Protein backbone atom coordinates (compact mmCIF):
# COMPACT_ATOMS: atom_id res chain seq x y z
CA UNK A 1 0.00 0.00 0.00
CA UNK A 2 2.82 2.38 0.93
CA UNK A 3 4.52 1.71 -2.43
CA UNK A 4 1.29 2.48 -4.27
CA UNK A 5 0.88 5.75 -2.37
CA UNK A 6 4.49 6.70 -3.15
CA UNK A 7 3.90 6.06 -6.84
CA UNK A 8 0.72 8.16 -6.80
CA UNK A 9 2.65 10.97 -5.08
CA UNK A 10 5.31 10.92 -7.80
CA UNK A 11 2.74 10.91 -10.59
CA UNK A 12 0.66 13.74 -9.11
CA UNK A 13 3.19 15.98 -7.35
CA UNK A 14 6.36 15.62 -9.43
CA UNK A 15 5.83 17.11 -12.91
CA UNK A 16 7.48 15.49 -15.93
CA UNK A 17 10.68 17.05 -17.22
CA UNK A 18 9.72 20.01 -19.37
CA UNK A 19 11.38 20.61 -22.71
CA UNK A 20 13.72 23.56 -22.79
CA UNK A 21 14.22 25.99 -25.67
CA UNK A 22 17.70 27.42 -26.17
CA UNK A 23 17.64 30.48 -28.48
CA UNK A 24 20.88 31.21 -30.35
CA UNK A 25 21.11 34.46 -32.28
CA UNK A 26 23.46 36.66 -34.30
CA UNK A 27 25.66 33.82 -35.47
CA UNK A 28 26.76 32.91 -31.92
CA UNK A 29 28.38 29.50 -32.53
CA UNK A 30 29.45 29.19 -28.89
CA UNK A 31 25.76 29.38 -27.92
CA UNK A 32 25.08 26.19 -29.90
CA UNK A 33 27.95 24.36 -28.19
CA UNK A 34 26.77 25.48 -24.76
CA UNK A 35 23.15 24.51 -25.51
CA UNK A 36 24.17 21.00 -26.62
CA UNK A 37 26.28 20.55 -23.49
CA UNK A 38 23.41 21.67 -21.27
CA UNK A 39 20.93 19.41 -23.06
CA UNK A 40 23.29 16.45 -22.61
CA UNK A 41 23.05 16.86 -18.84
CA UNK A 42 19.37 15.82 -19.00
CA UNK A 43 19.20 13.75 -22.18
CA UNK A 44 15.63 12.49 -21.66
CA UNK A 45 14.18 15.99 -22.16
CA UNK A 46 12.93 16.95 -25.62
CA UNK A 47 15.04 20.09 -25.92
CA UNK A 48 15.11 22.55 -28.82
CA UNK A 49 17.87 24.85 -30.06
CA UNK A 50 16.26 27.70 -32.01
CA UNK A 51 18.61 29.38 -34.50
CA UNK A 52 17.87 32.75 -36.04
CA UNK A 53 18.47 33.77 -39.66
CA UNK A 54 22.25 34.06 -39.65
CA UNK A 55 25.46 32.10 -40.27
CA UNK A 56 26.97 30.33 -37.29
CA UNK A 57 30.67 29.95 -38.06
CA UNK A 58 32.84 27.50 -36.11
CA UNK A 59 36.58 28.02 -35.90
CA UNK A 60 37.89 25.22 -33.66
CA UNK A 61 37.48 21.59 -32.68
CA UNK A 62 35.51 20.63 -29.58
CA UNK A 63 36.24 16.90 -29.37
CA UNK A 64 37.47 13.91 -31.34
CA UNK A 65 40.65 12.17 -32.40
CA UNK A 66 42.72 11.37 -35.47
CA UNK A 67 41.01 7.99 -35.97
CA UNK A 68 37.34 9.07 -35.92
CA UNK A 69 37.75 12.72 -36.84
CA UNK A 70 37.03 15.87 -34.86
CA UNK A 71 33.73 17.70 -34.28
CA UNK A 72 33.06 21.40 -33.68
CA UNK A 73 30.28 20.75 -31.14
CA UNK A 74 29.78 18.30 -28.25
CA UNK A 75 28.56 14.84 -29.21
CA UNK A 76 24.75 14.87 -28.86
CA UNK A 77 23.64 12.28 -26.30
CA UNK A 78 19.88 12.82 -25.88
CA UNK A 79 16.64 14.12 -27.40
CA UNK A 80 17.30 17.35 -29.25
CA UNK A 81 15.90 19.38 -32.14
CA UNK A 82 18.14 21.94 -33.86
CA UNK A 83 15.81 24.24 -35.80
CA UNK A 84 16.88 27.02 -38.17
CA UNK A 85 14.87 29.81 -39.77
CA UNK A 86 15.01 28.16 -43.19
CA UNK A 87 17.45 26.44 -45.49
CA UNK A 88 18.36 29.72 -47.21
CA UNK A 89 18.50 31.71 -43.97
CA UNK A 90 20.34 29.71 -41.31
CA UNK A 91 23.76 28.14 -41.92
CA UNK A 92 26.15 26.12 -39.76
CA UNK A 93 29.61 26.50 -41.29
CA UNK A 94 33.23 25.70 -40.70
CA UNK A 95 35.38 28.82 -41.08
CA UNK A 96 36.99 28.81 -44.53
CA UNK A 97 40.25 30.42 -43.37
CA UNK A 98 43.33 28.45 -44.45
CA UNK A 99 44.46 27.84 -40.87
CA UNK A 100 41.11 26.50 -39.62
CA UNK A 101 41.55 22.93 -38.33
CA UNK A 102 39.54 20.07 -39.81
CA UNK A 103 36.24 19.13 -38.16
CA UNK A 104 32.67 18.12 -38.91
CA UNK A 105 29.80 20.24 -37.56
CA UNK A 106 27.65 17.67 -35.70
CA UNK A 107 28.03 14.18 -34.22
CA UNK A 108 25.02 12.25 -32.89
CA UNK A 109 26.03 9.55 -30.41
CA UNK A 110 24.34 6.12 -30.11
CA UNK A 111 21.90 7.42 -27.47
CA UNK A 112 21.01 10.57 -29.42
CA UNK A 113 17.54 11.18 -30.90
CA UNK A 114 17.95 14.27 -33.03
CA UNK A 115 15.97 16.33 -35.53
CA UNK A 116 17.71 18.84 -37.81
CA UNK A 117 15.43 21.18 -39.72
CA UNK A 118 15.42 24.40 -41.69
CA UNK A 119 19.13 25.02 -42.16
CA UNK A 120 22.22 24.54 -44.33
CA UNK A 121 25.43 22.80 -43.20
CA UNK A 122 28.47 23.94 -45.16
CA UNK A 123 32.22 23.46 -45.30
CA UNK A 124 32.71 20.69 -42.75
CA UNK A 125 35.80 18.55 -43.32
CA UNK A 126 37.44 15.69 -41.47
CA UNK A 127 40.89 14.39 -42.28
CA UNK A 128 40.79 12.29 -45.49
CA UNK A 129 42.48 9.32 -43.84
CA UNK A 130 41.11 5.81 -43.36
CA UNK A 131 37.69 5.68 -41.68
CA UNK A 132 37.11 9.38 -40.97
CA UNK A 133 33.36 9.66 -41.59
CA UNK A 134 30.81 12.41 -42.09
CA UNK A 135 32.18 15.75 -43.21
CA UNK A 136 29.02 17.58 -42.11
CA UNK A 137 27.26 15.11 -39.79
CA UNK A 138 28.21 11.72 -38.32
CA UNK A 139 25.17 9.83 -37.02
CA UNK A 140 25.27 6.83 -34.68
CA UNK A 141 21.80 7.36 -33.18
CA UNK A 142 18.35 8.22 -34.48
CA UNK A 143 18.45 11.20 -36.85
CA UNK A 144 15.65 12.94 -38.74
CA UNK A 145 16.86 15.55 -41.24
CA UNK A 146 14.15 17.66 -42.87
CA UNK A 147 14.32 20.77 -45.05
CA UNK A 148 18.11 20.77 -44.81
CA UNK A 149 20.91 21.22 -47.34
CA UNK A 150 24.48 19.96 -46.88
CA UNK A 151 27.02 21.38 -49.32
CA UNK A 152 30.80 21.58 -49.76
CA UNK A 153 31.65 19.11 -46.99
CA UNK A 154 34.41 16.49 -47.17
CA UNK A 155 35.41 13.19 -45.53
CA UNK A 156 36.98 9.82 -46.32
CA UNK A 157 33.48 8.28 -46.20
CA UNK A 158 30.33 10.36 -46.57
CA UNK A 159 31.29 13.94 -47.26
CA UNK A 160 27.74 15.04 -46.39
CA UNK A 161 26.09 12.81 -43.76
CA UNK A 162 27.43 9.43 -42.69
CA UNK A 163 25.00 7.03 -41.03
CA UNK A 164 27.07 4.64 -38.89
CA UNK A 165 26.42 1.07 -37.78
CA UNK A 166 23.21 0.89 -35.74
CA UNK A 167 22.17 4.40 -36.75
CA UNK A 168 18.75 5.33 -38.12
CA UNK A 169 18.68 8.12 -40.70
CA UNK A 170 15.56 9.69 -42.23
CA UNK A 171 15.86 12.38 -44.90
CA UNK A 172 12.82 14.48 -45.77
CA UNK A 173 12.98 17.21 -48.42
CA UNK A 174 16.76 17.49 -48.23
CA UNK A 175 19.48 18.34 -50.75
CA UNK A 176 22.85 16.67 -50.14
CA UNK A 177 25.00 17.93 -52.98
CA UNK A 178 28.46 19.23 -53.77
CA UNK A 179 30.14 17.14 -51.06
CA UNK A 180 33.34 15.14 -51.63
CA UNK A 181 35.07 12.07 -50.27
CA UNK A 182 37.91 9.68 -51.01
CA UNK A 183 36.16 6.33 -50.85
CA UNK A 184 32.39 6.07 -51.42
CA UNK A 185 29.51 8.36 -52.38
CA UNK A 186 30.14 11.89 -51.21
CA UNK A 187 26.51 12.44 -50.22
CA UNK A 188 25.09 10.16 -47.53
CA UNK A 189 26.40 6.58 -47.38
CA UNK A 190 24.61 4.50 -44.77
CA UNK A 191 25.73 1.49 -42.75
CA UNK A 192 22.58 1.70 -40.63
CA UNK A 193 18.89 2.11 -41.48
CA UNK A 194 18.18 4.91 -43.97
CA UNK A 195 14.86 6.31 -45.18
CA UNK A 196 14.56 8.97 -47.89
CA UNK A 197 11.54 11.09 -48.82
CA UNK A 198 11.89 13.93 -51.30
CA UNK A 199 15.66 13.99 -50.84
CA UNK A 200 18.12 14.97 -53.55
CA UNK A 201 21.10 12.59 -53.52
CA UNK A 202 22.98 12.70 -56.85
CA UNK A 203 24.59 9.39 -57.77
CA UNK A 204 28.38 9.53 -58.10
CA UNK A 205 31.27 7.13 -58.28
CA UNK A 206 33.71 6.85 -55.34
CA UNK A 207 36.02 9.78 -55.90
CA UNK A 208 36.78 13.32 -54.86
CA UNK A 209 33.90 14.41 -57.10
CA UNK A 210 31.32 12.96 -54.71
CA UNK A 211 27.73 14.10 -54.31
Main β sheet profile: 10 strands, parallel
Number of discrete domains: 1
Proportion of helical residues? 10-25%
Mean pLDDT: 83
* Morphology call: globular
Give start-end ranges of low-pLDDT stretches. Answer: 4-14, 196-200, 202-211
Q: What's the helix count?
A: 2
Radius of gyration: 18 Å
Topology summary:
Elements: H1 2-13, E1 21-24, H2 29-41, E2 46-51, E3 55-58, E4 63-65, E5 69-71, E6 79-83, E7 91-94, E8 106-108, E9 113-122, E10 137-139, E11 142-151, E12 154-157, E13 161-163, E14 168-172, E15 175-176, E16 180-184, E17 193-197
Task: Jot down its keywords.
single chain, 211 residues, mainly beta, 17 strands
What does this protein structure show overall?
- This protein is mainly β and 211 residues long.
- The chain has one domain (18-197).
- Helix content is 12%, strand content 37%.
- The protein contains two helices and 17 strands.
- Strands 1, 2, 3, 6, 7, 9, 11, 14, 15 and 17 form a ten-stranded parallel β-sheet that branches. It has a three-stranded parallel β-sheet with strand order 8-10-13, with no helix packed on it. A two-stranded antiparallel sheet has the order 4-5.
- The model is unreliable at 4-14, 196-200 and 202-211 (pLDDT under 50).
